[in-house]
Automatic annotation (TrEMBL):
<feature type="transmembrane region" description="Helical">
    <location>
        <begin position="132"/>
        <end position="155"/>
    </location>
</feature>
<keyword id="KW-0812">Transmembrane</keyword>
<feature type="transmembrane region" description="Helical">
    <location>
        <begin position="88"/>
        <end position="112"/>
    </location>
</feature>
<keyword id="KW-1133">Transmembrane helix</keyword>
<feature type="transmembrane region" description="Helical">
    <location>
        <begin position="50"/>
        <end position="68"/>
    </location>
</feature>
<keyword id="KW-0472">Membrane</keyword>
<protein>
    <submittedName>
        <fullName>DUF456 domain-containing protein</fullName>
    </submittedName>
</protein>
<dbReference type="InterPro" id="IPR007403">
    <property type="entry name" value="DUF456"/>
</dbReference>
<dbReference type="Pfam" id="PF04306">
    <property type="entry name" value="DUF456"/>
</dbReference>
Length: 165
């Protein structure tokens, strides 16, 4: 049973890494589920304090993932319309069959939101750039945390391999 749980946890770890780039999957939260599944094995338990702290971190990053692109838009002079456009663009980009829609969507959404708000093109372009930077920042943060969780997974499994088999 432990081997099955380790394989299932590995699947969640890989999905967490993928989820760092795809907004459909909450990367760090998915990776945390992998850590929790690993904890359920008899061979590789984690400390409950560790699991709670890593869960709080994963939830915090999941929340920030929705806030950071909007903050980038606002930081670069965007208005409320640009922030709303960023969010709508992210959803449209996610559903779009166009490759790179997830990246282009928030940028174009912020640009269109600012232009609809009667901003001049240069100001709207600057706000859209801020949205893009916010998206890249949140993706980077998610990926780093998912890699750290994956590293913890690998260390625990390698150190306890003899107990599994």
């Amino acid at each position: 049973m432990d081997v099955f749980l380790v394989i299932l946890a590995l699947l969640f770890m890989v999905l967490g890494l993928i989820g760092s780039f795809l907004p459909v999957l909450p990367g760090p939260l998915t990776s945390w589920v992998g850590l929790f599944i690993l904890h359920l094995t008899e061979a590789i338990p984690f400390n409950w304090t560790f699991l709670i702290i890593t869960l709080i971190l994963a939830i915090g990053i999941w929340i920030l993932d929705y806030i950071i692109p909007a903050m980038g838009t606002k930081r670069y002079g965007g208005s409320r319309a640009g922030i709303i456009g960023t969010s709508i663009g992210l959803i449209v980009g996610l559903l779009s069959p166009i490759p790179g829609g997830i990246i282009i969507g928030p940028f174009l959404g912020a640009l269109l939101g600012e232009l609809m708000n009667k901003s001049e093109f240069n100001k709207a372009l600057k706000a859209a750039f801020g949205s893009f930077l916010g998206f890249l920042a949140s993706t980077f943060i998610k990926f780093v945390v998912a890699v750290i969780y994956f590293g913890l997974f690998i260390m625990k499994v390698v150190n306890n391999t003899e107990l599994l088999f």
